[in-house]
Amino acid sequence: MNHKKNPQNGVAVSMVDIPKTLSRAAQVLKIVATDNTFKPVKLPIDPFANRDGMAKTWVGNCIHCCTKLVVWEDGSTAATIEHIVPTAAGGSEDLFNLALACARCNNEKGIRHDARKLDQRAQEVVEKLKTRRLQRWRAPCAL
After folding, report:
1. Which of the chain's ends, N or C, has fewer CB atoms near its CB within 10 Å?
2. pTM of the complete model
3. How many CA atoms are closer than 13 Å to the CA of 123, on its beta-carbon side?
């Protein structure tokens, strides 16, 4: 098992691959569990329902633009799974390489950087995202 150090506190954290057999919802929840921008919140299931119809959700931020992202208790979300180092460039399914992004940002990165080999600009974007992911890292918590 590989380890990386969190730049904020110097604590070594293990790198964990997410099995490809996990459902998308399960992958999303594993990412949420390791991203300290996501906090538990109760939101109305139906905006017209009374207060009894509340659902547990997680609210956090896009890895790129910090737009609010909502992940429901079952892992459903409009957010996309972002491979910080694109799989086409050798990126893995490791939790350090995965983050949640709004669809607009993830699509822009894909169009501008992921399809090509990692040129200088793409490498700068990847390094910025790696640093941001490490800053947002928390030990996996129970959801």
Report:
1. N
2. 0.78
3. 4
For the chain, first and last CA: distance in Å? 24
Question: With 0-12 CB in 10 A as exposed, 13-18 as middle and 19+ as buried, what is 94?
Answer: middle
As a whole number of angstroms, the longest Cα–Cα distance in the chain is 53
How far from the centroid of its chain's Cα atoms is residue 130's Cα?
11
**Per-position DSSP letters for 79-103, written without gaps between them:** -EEEESS-GGGT--SBGGGEEEE-H
Beta-ladder partners of 63? none
Return d(Cα 35, Cα 133) in angstroms, integer: 8
pLDDT digits (tens, 9 = 90+) for 33-63: 999 999 998 877 665 555 566 778 999 999 9
